[in-house]
Design brief:
By secondary structure, the chain is an alpha+beta fold. The chain has one domain: Gcn5-related N-acetyltransferase (GNAT) (Aminopeptidase), CATH 3.40.630.30. Helices cover 28% and strands 37% of the residues. It contains 4 helices and 7 strands. Strand 4, helix 3 and strand 5 form a beta-alpha-beta unit.
């Protein structure tokens, strides 16, 4: 007999410093080379679009994921999108991409851009299914194990 998952009510809210501890916990559990508190703080100070996706009701809302995006002239660059590992494979990445695309269109953006690790096939598949296309490679873009570097796949999607 399989477990029945109860529907989870989810909502977005602006990422603030009060979310940093929870965000960093997810970030560190999801990545070998996570963003730092400083990366998130700098993003907020720069005015980037930063949202958290939570499930459940306050005050016990659980962090499902988050994203940070930078607006350009006619484009938006997705800098970080993360689903908490315990909530992966449940469609939350698509929910966040929908929110990002909607916000981006509202900002007058015509394109979404991102980089993803060459080795992150699961994320690349999510992006491709969403409509992103591989448009280039940034050589040795990401830090890797043993002080090495890893290529990034550059992807874009027309809005």
């Amino acid at each position: 007999m399989s477990a029945v998952l109860e529907p989870l009510e989810a909502q977005f809210e602006a990422m603030t410093e009060s979310w940093f501890d929870a965000v960093l916990q997810v970030e560190q559990s999801a990545y070998a080379h996570p963003w730092t508190r400083g990366n998130f703080s700098d993003s907020l100070k720069a005015g980037y679009q930063a949202l958290v996706l939570t499930g459940g009701s306050s005050p016990n809302a659980e962090l499902l994921g988050y994203f940070v995006a930078m607006k350009g002239v006619d484009e938006v660059h997705l800098l970080n999108i993360t689903v908490a590992p315990v909530h992966q494979r449940q469609g939350w990445a698509r929910v966040m991409l929908d929110a990002l695309a909607l916000w981006s269109r509202g900002q007058g953006a015509q394109w979404l851009w991102l980089e993803v690790r060459m080795s992150n096939g699961r994320a690349r598949t999510v992006y491709e299914r969403y409509g992103f296309r591989h448009v280039g490679t940034r050589r040795q873009y990401y830090p890797a194990a043993n002080a090495g570097r890893e290529d990034a796949v550059v992807m874009s999607m027309a809005l």
